[in-house]
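Q: How would the structure tokens look for this protein?
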Amino acid sequence: MKPQKIWIITCLFSVILISTVSYAPSIFAQSQQEQTQSTIPYMQYLQYLNEALQRYYVDEVKPEVLFQGAAEGMLNALKDPYTMYIDNGSLTGVSLQDTTTGYFGGIGITFTKPSTSTAERPSYIEVASALEGTPSWKAGIQADDLITEIEGDSVIEMTQADVVAKLRGKIGSSVTVTVRRGKNMEFPVKLVRARIEVPTIKYMKLDKDIGYIRLIEFNPNGSRRIREAMESLQAEGVTKLVLDLRNNAGGLITAAVDTASLFIKDGLIVSTKSRIPQQDLISNTNAAIDAVFADVPLVVLINKGSASASEILAGAFKDHKRAYLVGETSYGKGSVQQIFDLTQKDSFKMTIARYYTPSGANVDKLGIKPDKEVLLFPPLSTDDEKKLEKLFKDEKLSSFVKKNKELTSEQITRYAETLVKEYSLNKDLLRILIRQEYNRTHTAPAADIDYDAPLQEAVKILKSGTLPQLLRNSKSVLQMQEEASQEKVGAKKAS
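A: Here is the predicted structure in token form.
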């Protein structure tokens, strides 16, 4: 069987952009050539099972039904959330096709879903990020949230295709999901489906010489848009930059390489390793792109919603000591997928490689630890989570924002102080939540530094003049992984 096309992607299940590559036939040819004798009996067993079902099953069975079931079963057996069967006529397949146009329909989340459910990790929908401006973002859904129910139905037994089919729908129609946050918070969220436009960047001047660019997703235009934004900021006197990769769930590997090439003169950006050495890739800086911003002091923001291509870029910056990372540990998506056509109607997506940062680190399930950890929200105790759940259920934030079309910082602070008395929650946390609720229903600025502790820290570093020293003393991704591993070993020995 010769596949007709392949797409290579790095992002999470709800992919945004896909690019086409052309070496699939060699993969299949090689796999066929290397097929061992031990595989043959199992193929014969499958053939026998198929013949038995066709001949003896009590009802007539359509061959395509058996084929689809067999394909899904084999792929699900790998227990890899990124490897899956795709019916191109389903909403899953349509969503993949839509991503090439720059828009898709739905609620605006990127997510993964374990193929099997365990007591420790039930097969809930795991939110990687909510795209800014989408229904999910406006409703306050965050990275690391779990969606446990859709329209009152548990998602545990749903496939990823089922999830997409239930979350997508006619623009303007609604869907209610149950969101679990932390250990104790669980609340319903009603979402109105919308056409999801895929944005690229937002930017603004933060200080007299400090600019801010938020890269929302990696697409073919990303590096060009960043260059245009930076040149515009430089025209306003900007000489230093904060690059925000928070909640950027990924996109094209090539887009990450091109973006890195604007800031790094030369060298390795990312490499991939697979079972087939001939298919391993080494991606250096793009020689066609001038490193016009190679000397711009740079601080990069990451969080648990920064995944895939975001981690490739952040890892390259860190390993080259080109940027200082601030925020929280990234998502940990260090694998590469390809989509293969089976028939005109069916495809499958399969993990075919892992990618590595320039220092040789794979971030899968580990993420990238920032040079300085700064959390957006203060940590919550179990008791705090219960209080916060009550605050959400009481709808105090939304009702306050609705009554005040224009909110000043002073008004937000005063109302936060009122809520502290009622709910005994951290005032800074409440200020951020009120401001976020306001931003969801109004035109939000590109950056909101008064309510953003990681951004405040990034600006502080750039203003202090300590960035060169911090970069000299920073450690590579691999070094930090090795240190973390040694600490775990030491902790086990101590216990």
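Confidence is low (pLDDT under 50) at residues 1-31, 90-103.

The longest strand covers residues 346-356.

Upvote if useful.
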